[in-house]
Amino acid sequence: MAPFPAPGPARGGGAGKAPPRAPAEIRALARSPRASFLHGMIATTPFLIVVVPFALLFGVMSQEAGMDLAQTMGFSILVFAGASQFTAVQLISDQAPALLVILSGLAVNLRMAMYSASLVPWLRGASAGKKVLIAYLLIDQSFALSLQHYERHPRLTLPQRLAYFFGSATLLCLPWSLATWAGATLGRAIPDDIALDFAMPITFLAMIAPMLRTPAHLAACGVAIVLALVFAGLPSGLGLMIAALAGMATGALVETVMERGKATQG
C-alpha cells in the first residue's frame, strides 16, 4: 500500500477531473524548504508550554539523584528522550543496579522504533547523514507533528518534509537543553509549591488525542490504559511496559483485521 495517494489525473473535463485542492494544501505545497522549516517551528511553539517545565523538572531531579551538572547535561543532550531520562534518574535515586537502569531506559524508548517505522514511507529518500540526524532529533512531539503534517499534505516534496521535521525538532531540542541547565543550576530556587510534574501527562495527552482517528488507534489506547491501571503496582515501571506492548499488539491486530475485511469486500 502506498504511503500517500498517487497524484490525481490531469485537470480536464469528465469524470476524471481531479478535485480542487484546499487552501491549506495549496499553501503547504507553495512553501520553500526554508518556509517549511519556519512553519515547523511555529507549529511546535505551543509545546514549549510543557516542554520547558518538563526539562526544568528533569534538571532538578537529576541533581537530587546525585548527578553533577556535566552528567545532567550530557544525559540530556546525548539522549533527548525525556521519558527514559526520568525513568533512569528515578531508578538511580532508588539505587537500582546499572543494568536495570539501562534496560529500563531502552524499554521505555522502544516506541522510537515504531516512530521510525512510521516515518520511513515519508522520509526514505533522505541521505544517510540526514537519517542519522533525524534519528538523533526524533522525539515524541516532533514525530507526532511531522506525521500529522505529512498525512494532511501527502504531496509535499522530500525537502519540504525534511525541513518541517527539522524545524519542529530544533524548536524543541534547544529549549530542552537550556531548561535542563536552568533546572540543574537554579532548581533549588524554584518554590516547592510549583508543580512542574504537570508537564509530562499534559504533553502526552496533547500529542495522542489528535491521533486517535481510527478503530485501531482507539483499541490500542483503550487496552494500554486499562492494563496500565491493572499493573500499576508492578515495580520499576514494568506495568507500563506491559501495557504499551499489549496496546501496540492490539492496534496492529485490529488494523490487520480491518484491512482483510476491506480486501474481502473489494
Structure description:
By secondary structure, this protein is mostly helical. The protein folds into two domains: 32-206, no CATH class; 212-266. Helix content is 71%, strand content 0%. It has 13 helices and no strands. The chain has helices spanning 23-30, 33-44, 48-64, 69-79, 82-93, 98-108, 111-123, 128-137, 140-152, 158-186, 199-208, 215-230, 238-265. Helix 3 (48-64) crosses helix 10 (158-186). The model is unreliable at 1-15 (pLDDT under 50).
How many helices? The count is 13
Q: Calculate the mean pLDDT score and round it.
A: 80
Strand tally: 0
* First and last CA, distance: 14 Å
Largest sheet: none
CA-based shape = globular
Range of helix content: over 70%
- Order of H and E elements: HHHHHHHHHHHHH
Number of structural domains: 2
- Could you tell me the strand content as a percent range? under 5%
Oligomer: single chain
Overall radius of gyration = 21 Å
Task: State the low-pLDDT regions, or none.
Answer: 1-15
Structural class: mainly alpha
Keywords:
disordered N terminus, 2 domains, 13 helices
Set down the secondary structure blueprint:
Layout: H1 23-30, H2 33-44, H3 48-64, H4 69-79, H5 82-93, H6 98-108, H7 111-123, H8 128-137, H9 140-152, H10 158-186, H11 199-208, H12 215-230, H13 238-265
Helix pairs in contact: 2-10, 3-5, 3-10, 3-11, 4-10, 5-6, 7-9, 9-10, 9-11, 12-13
Can I get a quick summary?
The protein is mainly α. Helix content is 71%, strand content 0%.
